[in-house]
Amino acid sequence: MTLAQQANDEKIRLDKWLWAARFFKTRALAKAAIEGGKVQCRGERCKPSKEPKVGEELTIRQGFDEKTVVITALSQQRRGAPEAQLLYRETEESLERRERAASLRKAGALGMTTEGRPSKKQRRQIHRFWGDADQRSMD
Q1: Does residue 28 contact residue 36 with C-beta atoms inside 8 Å?
Q2: What pLDDT was estimated at residue 105?
Q3: First to last CA, the chain
Q4: HSE on the CB side for 7, CA within 13 Å?
Q5: pLDDT at residue 110, as a whole number
Q6: Is residue 20 a part of any domain in this protein?
Q7: Predicted TM-score (pTM) above 0.85
Q8: If 0-12 CB within 10 Å is exposed, 13-18 middle and 19+ buried, where does residue 17 land?
Q9: Amino acid 102: pLDDT
Q10: CB 82 within 8 Å of CB 22
């Protein structure tokens, strides 16, 4: 009996499947993400106790990334990453969208600025600049 056949015979919770598929490090994090609306099934919010089915489409938001995956197998056990990746398939649109967003972030096009307090190095440069300017004006 293969892993997929064995898992199909059992009922499983969505938070446990997300943990087994290695989307989250713990079931508690998976549950919090579901309750926070970061995991959606067919475009709607769902509960941690929902029973996922093979073929269902999930949208999972983690940090800046949003993945759309289709469940291909069910498992209650957390295994290695290569086996966990067999539990789902990411859609082509999702892959393209994530790659595009990553390249925009890398290029700095999303407006992520680091305004705020200057770093120690920047403060030294400011002090050096103003210190030199003060001495020149006194001469």
Answers
A1: no
A2: 82
A3: 89
A4: 24
A5: 52
A6: yes
A7: no
A8: buried
A9: 87
A10: no
Domain count, the chain: 1
Closest CA to 91 of 70, 65, 61, 62: 70
- As a three-state string, the secondary structure of the chain is CCHHHHHHCCCCCHHHHHHHCCCCCCHHHHHHHHHCCCEEECCEECCCCCCCCCCCEEEEEECCEEEEEEECCCCCCCCCHHHHHHHEEECHHHHHHHHHHHHHHHHCCCCCCCCCCCCHHHHHHHHHHHHHHHHHHHC
- At residue 6, the pLDDT reads 47
10 Å CB burial of residue 11 (0-12, 13-18, 19+) is: exposed
Domain that holds residue 44: 3-109
CATH assignment at residue 54:
3.10.290.10
Low-confidence ranges of the chain (pLDDT < 50): 1, 5-8
Asked if residue 116 is part of any domain, the answer here is no
Alpha-carbon gap, residue 129 to 106, rounded angstroms: 31
In a domain, 136, yes or no: no
